[in-house]
Every structure is written in C-alpha cells, then in structure tokens.
Amino acid sequence: MRAPPSRCRKPCYTRRVHSPSITSVQGSGPRHPAVLRVTHWITTVCFLALLVTGIEILISHPCFYWGETGSSVTTPLFRIPVPASRPTVPSGYSYVLPDQNGWSRALHFEAAWAAVLTGLAYCIWGIWTGHFRRTLLPSADQRTWPAFRGQILHHLRFRRPNDGEAHSYNSIQRLSYLVVIFVLFPMMILTGLALSPGFNSAVPEVVNWLGGRQSARTLHFFLTVALFAFLLVHVGMIFLAGFWSRVRAMITGKVQPPKEQS
Amino acid sequence: MSQVSRRKFVQAGLGVAAGAAGVAVAARIAGQYGLLPPDGSGIYGPGETLTYAAQRIITAHSLAREFPRSTISKTPFANAIAPSSDAFKGLQTGGFNDWRLTVDGMVAHPTTFSIADLKQLPVRSQITEVVCEEGWSYVAEWTGTPLVEALNACGVLPHARYVVYFSIEPDWWESVDMSDALHPQTLVTYAMNDGDLPVRFGGPLRLRVPRQLGYKSIKFIQHITVTDDIRKFGKGLGSSAPEAGYAWYAGI
After folding, report:
1. Which residues of A touch B47 (CB under 8 A)?
2. What letter would DSSP give residue A68?
3. How far apart are CA A233 and CA A106, in angstroms?
4. pTM of the model as a whole
5. Taking chain A, what is the end-to-end CA distance rounded to the nearest angstrom?
6. Omega into B204 within 30° of 0, i.e. cis?
7. What torsion do the CA atoms of B150, B152, B155, B158 make, to the nearest 10 degrees?
8. Could B47 and A214 be called an inter-chain contact, meaning their C-beta atoms sit closer than 8 Å?
9. What is the C-alpha to C-alpha distance for residues A207 and A211, in angstroms, rounded to an integer?
10. Are the beta carbons of B193 and B160 closer than 8 angstroms?
C-alpha cells in the first residue's frame, strides 16, 4: 500500500549547515539539494553527449599509441577491432563507416565546456556548503576497518541496501563518488586539454607530464572506460536499490517512505 | 502562491535577466577584442566561441612545442593526394620552378613570389608535430619563410584582421586571424627534413600553423589574401572547414 507523500514545504528551504545527523533523519529536508540535482542531470546529459561523440571521433582512428607520436605507419599499443570511419587507418574491414566527425567534434567540445562549467559550480557549492565533507567524506563510524569490511561483504552479496541508505551514502559509495569527482573527472579534463595544440602551446607541462600527445590520448580513452564502468555500476546499483525511488529522489529531492514488503 | 515561492520566483527571474544581460555584455566586449570566431553562430556557436576566446587569451604569446632532433618521426604519415589537375602536373614536371605564390588584398604592395624568391627572405626551421583531428601525429623538421616575413615584404595595412590562403585544389582554403598570421611559427613551408617539401606532404608550398590541428595547414598553396572582412569569402564562415562541419578555429 502507498503511504501518503510527505509534503515538507517550509523545511526544504531552511539552510542546513553543520548538521551531521540531518542525512539520516527522514523528511527533514530534500534528499538531494536542488544544486546537486540540477548539476547531476546536466552532467548526465553532457557525459552521454561526450561518450557518443567520443566514440564517433575514436572510430576515425581506432588505434592507440604510447609516447608523443603515432600513426598508421607506426606500431600501435593496441587497436580496437571495429571498422573505421576513415580510409587512412587499416581497420581489417573492407568498408569504411560514414564519417560523422564534424558535428561530433563540435558537440564534444561544447558538452565539455558545459560539463566543466557545471562541475566548477558544483565544486564551489560543495565546498561552500560543506557537502563534500558532510556527505561524501566517509563519516567517522564508516572509517573503521570492520565497518568498511562489512560494507564490502554487503556489496559482494548483492544485498539490497537497507532503508537508511535512501538518506545517506554508504562508505563504498562515498569513496567511488570521491574518486569519480576528484580523480577521474579532473584527469579526463587534463588528458583532453593535452590533446589541444593551442592549450599545449600555452601550458606544455601537462602534455609533457602525461608522457606525450599519444599517451594523453590513450589515457583519455582508459578514463572513458573507467567512467563508463562507473556509469554501468551506478545505474545497476540504482536498479538494485529501487530504480524509481532513487531516480525520483534525484529529480524531486523527495524520498518516498519505504513501502510495506509485498 | 506562498511567500517563499514568490520570492524564489522573483529571484529566479532576476537571475535569468542578469544572466542574459551578462552574456550580451560579454559578447560585446569579446567582439571588441576580436574573441568571436567567424563560425560562432548556430547550436555549436557557444562552444566554439568559448574555445576560441579562452585560447586567444591564454595563447597570446605562446609557442608551439618544438622537439629535439632525435624525436623526428622516422616514418611520417603522408596523407596528401597529389592534385590531379593538368596545371599541377605541368608545374610538377617543371620542378615547380614556375610555382607562384601571390600575396594581395590589404597590403601596400601586392607581390608574386617564386619559391626562389621566398628563399631570399629570412628562413626559419622548426621541429614541430603535425596533429591530425583523426588522432594520429608525427614530428618533422619544417623549413620555410615565416608568414610574417612574407607579409612584411608586402606591407600589411593596419586594419587587416584575417589572412586567407588558398590551395591549387578548388574549394580548399583556410584563414587565420592576425594573431596566428603574425605568429613566428606560422611558416610558408618549402622544405621538410633536409629536402624539398614532398608533394605527398603538401609540396611545393604548405602553410604550416603548428598551434592548430593539421587541417588548418593546407597544402599546395598559391594565393594569400589579407582582409578585414572574412564574411566576403565563401559562405562567410572563415574557411572551407566550417562549410564541411569542422571548426574554423582548430586550436581546440
């Protein structure tokens, strides 16, 4: 049976700072603050745009190299076994896919700008409000080895999360979000910038530090694989936890009270 | 409507108005400082404009990376197809002795150079990377006349804003703003790795713009025009690249 939706007009807008227990109290505020919800969905749209256009750009030369240079007449590090959209690269296929590089590149860079500006706004907000410290840094009780081990075992058994997790992130979740936000995304931006000849002329240190242009391109691809793997697990966990309840919480900010088990 | 939501509504309205005004002012200032690309309209316009404006600011005095001689690629990838026209074949048969590069437009003395004439101008050699938008790259040594030297020989007029350059191949042309045109590494290239520039790398003359992607460095150039109004050329998007869906500014 359906519990009545909890309408909490006023408290939703009250400022919540330095209140570590708030995330575990049901109905005292939105599950996800508005800034987080908006930036989450803008990032989602940008990421999907970057992924699709990135694949489109990749298939114009589906070979990867290490170091500064690499081309069809040098030895690749590895090759993705897909047909190419250009005839300048041996793909092992007798045909060439339609070339979609033009709009793909334009959309890739525009989505990158949108993602970076959104991420910047999110990071400023996250530091300003203490969101990272309060919500993403594992809490004191999560930072013990037995608690962490228990969480790993819980995940390995593919258990449904308990109801408290509709209101607060568990430690593995927190760590993976921290890695995505503060390691994978920044590295994605740096390896992407290292592919820009203009940026490289202004800041040659980045591409040189990454080991050269082709190394940066290969790392950009590996990071895509890592972020795509995160996306799959993230969506998988949402299905496990209850797809609509989690998605609704990320859209409206409201958590539906737990249903009676049928 | 409750008190809170009305306040929110007013705040949001003010925010949107302020944002729109801010964008309009920013666009005006950007236009004044030459930070708007010729293809900066349409759905991808904001992205192109942000990239071009941001890079014009950070690359104001930057040089493309130059590499040690030991890193020159042993097997550079040649992706040029020799023009099939009889005109090109005739010039090739004559060893390109009759190849001419005409510089005209907003210059005091329009001039036509042979390759021998260009070699009389100051020479620059640089070991830089060719970066293709497809993803591959190679390093080579390029020798030629800095475009700025050729332009100075013709006397560029003060209101010049773009330099447009044309290949012998029909409908193949590009342009750069004065920042790249006067840049010391922008090279009217006639030699590569201790020899004349081979046809399969764009010989006899290729304009190399090493701070941008390879497609900006078009091959077999014959004609350079200096202008203050890029919209007069082609479809007004700055070069043939945007007409095929690619960004005019290729510094990405």
Report:
1. 106-107, 109-113
2. S
3. 29
4. 0.89
5. 9
6. yes
7. 120
8. no
9. 6
10. no
